[in-house]
Amino acid sequence: MSRPIILGIVGDSAAGKTTLTRGIAQVLGPENVTLICTDDYHRYDRQQRAEIGITAIHPDCNYLDIMQQHLSLLRTGQPILKPVYSHKTGTFEAPQYIKPNKFVIIEGLLGYSTRAARDAYDVKVYLAPPESLRADWKVKRDTQKRGYTAEQVLAELEKREPDSEAFIRPQRQWSDIVVSFYPANENEDGSNGHLNVRLVLRPSIPHPDFTQILDAGNGNSQSAVRLGLDRDMGKPVDVLEVDGHATLEQVTKIEHIMCSDMPYLKNICDREINPELGKIAGTTGETLQSYPLALTQLIITYHMLKATQIYQ
Ligand SMILES: Nc1ncnc2c1ncn2[C@@H]1O[C@H](COP(=O)(O)OP(=O)(O)O)[C@@H](O)[C@H]1O
Ligand SMILES: O=C(COP(=O)(O)O)[C@H](O)[C@H](O)COP(=O)(O)O
Predict the structure, then answer these.
(1) Residues of the chain scoring pLDDT < 70
(2) Cα–ligand 2 centroid distance for 13 (angstroms)
(3) Are 57 and 163 in contact (CB under 8 A)?
(4) pLDDT of the residue at 265
(5) Pocket residue to mutate for ligand 1, from 21, 126, 137, 168, most atoms within 8 A of Cβ
(6) Is 1-125 in CATH node 3.40.50.300?
(7) For the Phosphoribulokinase/uridine kinase domain, which residue ranges apply (predicted)?
(8) Which atom of ligand 1 lies closest to the CA of 15?
(9) CA dist list (Å): 40 to 31, 85, 203, 285
(10) Please, where in the chain does CATH 3.40.50.300 lie?
């Protein structure tokens, strides 16, 4: 059976969805990827939300039924007429006719909130940075790119907190991979490219065999690359942690575990061919490079390519 492979990237506002998605899309080849942001399924524009007093992250503020219908259509390779919400103006624009490419990446706030929507994905990722880091990212981005003041962003975050708790964070349980970038020490503000990453790998999809990391003598609590067992929302999981100061040699070792298992990934592992991996658009126009981000993007790409072996 040939059909598009669907990746979900879900998380709260400014959790890093766009940043994570960019590198994956680049590696899969922009011509092979259809990118969809579920913000387009907002029911109300910016002014209406303010008048009604509803937050953008409340399910009632989104046409989740239509989002779900569109996901099912895309999964079977059919086109959709997608609404368009502009973050620049806070209003809706003319809808877009979209035919799915080989890979479809759906990023947004409430992508896993209904059972039928969840069933549409091949790989489900949930982004969960510490809330203080997310607030920092959101203030920087929304003041620089979306025309808000810092006070407005902080007030909005406070207003949204009950909805984040009720509707966004529970979606973590449905993901195959939980991605959390975090500063090595609490005083760091996350504006540099040296954040660590903690990847929760649920047994809901078969992950590469990272136990070789342990065999190679890495993986202990002192190492910049650590593999362990834990529980997440009560369920047993593997946890892979990569520090921002991990060396190229350590990172390459993990890449090889994946690349030896997947011929197509061999090209991707070549950094010179894929400079987009691990790139972060800093909020003041600079570009940063992060090994933990590059590895996270590579693991997700690995799963997308595995899925093509089954369905394409
Ligand atoms: N892994 C990361 N490391 C450092 N900064 C990041 C990372 N991910 C996101 N950011 C910062 O946070 C901001 C918000 O991220 P973005 O990807 O736009 O979030 P979302 O799409 O979830 O709203 C970005 O402008 C970027 O500066
Ligand atoms: O929470 C988000 C999602 O965006 P993201 O996940 O990219 O942060 C936005 O605030 C709403 O979509 C409304 O948009 P706006 O605030 O521009 O009206």
Answers:
(1) 1, 186-193, 215-221, 267-273, 283-284, 311-312
(2) 6
(3) yes
(4) 74
(5) 137
(6) yes
(7) 6-185
(8) 22
(9) 22, 5, 32, 26
(10) 1-125
